[in-house]
Amino acid sequence: MSCVLLSETKIGYIDSGIILSQYEDVRQVQVELEKEQKRLQAVYETKILSLDSLKNAYDTRSMLMSEEKQQEILNTMSQKEAELQQWQLKYFGPEGELYRMQNELMAPILKTIDQALDRVGTEKGYDYIFDASSGGIVYALDANNLTQDILDQLKKINTSIDNEQPK
Prior knowledge:
The chain has helices at about 1-10, 15-20, 25-60, 65-90, 95-125, 145-165, and strands at about 10-15, 130, 135-140. A hairpin with a 5-residue loop joins β2 and β3. The protein is built from six helices and three strands. α3 (about 25-60) runs antiparallel to α4 and α3 runs antiparallel to α5 (about 95-125). By secondary structure, it is mainly alpha-helical.
């Protein structure tokens, strides 16, 4: 009987990497992100040059400075290095501005791709569509979604455990 059910199930797949590389809207986002990255990189390089010039000035003049002045400049350099690291995290870090910008720009595109998947899945009668590049399901017939059944079952299990516990 399972062979009959299996033969009635229609499964397809996509390669999201190809979709993302060939979809023009994604290319436009990539161009915009590259422009912003280059702008930020230029700002970063300017900050590094400023720090480097401060270090060079210290290296060439430190012999002529008092210990207080040396310590003051060393403290300034440490502060600038810390600021540079914070700036780098703020813009290039895993939750930085560049990452946020990418998510904001990609959100409507991913929504459009999801709509296309839903339409293709529905119109062509697919039960499941997998993503070959990630191995995940990107479309499934709602009738095959067992998520709520599992949640209901978990509630039943938790209730029975609670009732067995001595009060």
